[in-house]
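Work Package 3 (structural annotation) set out to generate three-dimensional models for the target panel prioritized at the project kickoff. During this period the team completed the workflow that converts sequence records into discrete structure tokens, so that structures can be stored uniformly alongside our sequence database. As a representative example, we reproduce one entry of 137 residues exactly as it appears in the project archive.
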Amino acid sequence: MDVAAAIITNEQLECLLQKKDLGYPWFPGKWCFFGGGIENGEEPLDTIRRELIEEGIPVKNIRFLWQNFYEDRTTINSRNGLQYIFHAEFTGRISDIRLNEGGGFAFFARSELKYVPIVEHDLKVIERFYDSLRNQS
């Protein structure tokens, strides 16, 4: 399954992540990007826009960064596909967000990420994103 995911940052370049609830079959209790599966006939940009609207996350300047292959495994299931990564700037208040699924959400500074249980392939993407910012300076 191909997916679209967003690195959403605020003015302090903190990253907005959502926490999977404990009943979710993939990575229960872990933190990950907002995003979702790309539906038939849908472009990745349309997917990420739809997902962010569904969660009430106000953003601007959505831009495609890159795509990478991902693979997830549990003891009974596996899935894989392309992960289309976007960056978006958060424009609202945290109270604007209407979480329709999951166990919570929060902004994290880069220095906090090593203490947060993040889905491994999402953590690699976040690190690549922050490294790219440093290389632009």
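DSSP finds two helices and seven strands in the chain.
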